[in-house]
Design a protein that fits this description.
The chain is an alpha/beta fold. It has a domain of about 140 residues: Nucleotidyltransferase, domain 5, CATH 3.30.420.10. It is built from 6 helices and 5 strands. It is globular, with a radius of gyration of 17 Å. The relative contact order is 0.23.
């Protein structure tokens, strides 16, 4: 059973990201502030849910949350600052855009940078422990998937509608055959047998 909050006194936002391990597309983070009476029987870490369940949860979360927001950091910025910094930036961006101001931040994982002077707590596997992080994981994942399906139409040979930019065999074979696109992360090892340029 997921807990609603890490602490009881302050307005708490949960944040999580999707797409860190992908070869293409943005890293997407979401931030969610939930009311004290929030519950949904399906809510869990988005990785434990089917796509259908995530899509069922998304409108429910958006309708019943106090505030939700989604932040995108695209491949050019990922290449410039690295994927960890880009993930944190996406989380900061999503918190920035909230219509309510949080007083405490809970973050999935073990890495975060201070946001303004708001206290925060990093929680490993937080998306399987706290509702707001789980809700953020669902939003981040579904909005990122939507984006990958959209750019799939531009470059259908990479099957991003199915692999969402993750390093599947099919995706890597397409990179071998068709090369890289403007959506690929140049700082990533796009092929396991990539030759060094030096």
């Amino acid at each position: 059973m997921l807990a609603l909050k890490y602490q009881e006194k302050l307005i708490e936002v949960g944040t999580d990201e999707a797409g860190r391990g992908c070869l293409s597309g943005p890293v997407v983070a979401a931030a969610v502030i939930l009311p004290d009476d929030f519950s949904h029987p399906l809510l869990n870490d988005s990785k434990q849910l089917t796509e259908k369940q995530r899509l069922e949860l998304r409108p429910f979360i958006e309708e019943h949350a106090i505030a939700t927001s989604v932040g995108y950091v695209y491949q050019e910025k990922i290449d410039e600052i690295n994927i960890l910094q880009a993930s944190i930036l996406a989380m900061h961006t999503s918190i920035d855009q909230l219509s309510a101001t949080p007083e405490f931040i809970i973050v999935d994982g073990n890495k975060f940078k201070p946001y303004k002077d708001i206290p925060y707590k990093t929680i490993v596997k937080g998306d399987a422990k706290f509702m707001s992080i789980a809700a953020a994981s669902v939003l981040a994942k579904t909005y990122r998937d939507d984006y990958m399906v959209k750019i799939h139409n531009e470059f259908p040979q990479y099957a991003w509608n199915k692999n969402k930019g993750y390093p599947t065999k099919q995706h890597r074979n397409a990179i071998r055959e068709f090369g890289i696109t403007k959506h690929h992360r140049m700082s990533f090892r796009l092929l396991p047998d990539q030759l060094s340029l030096f």
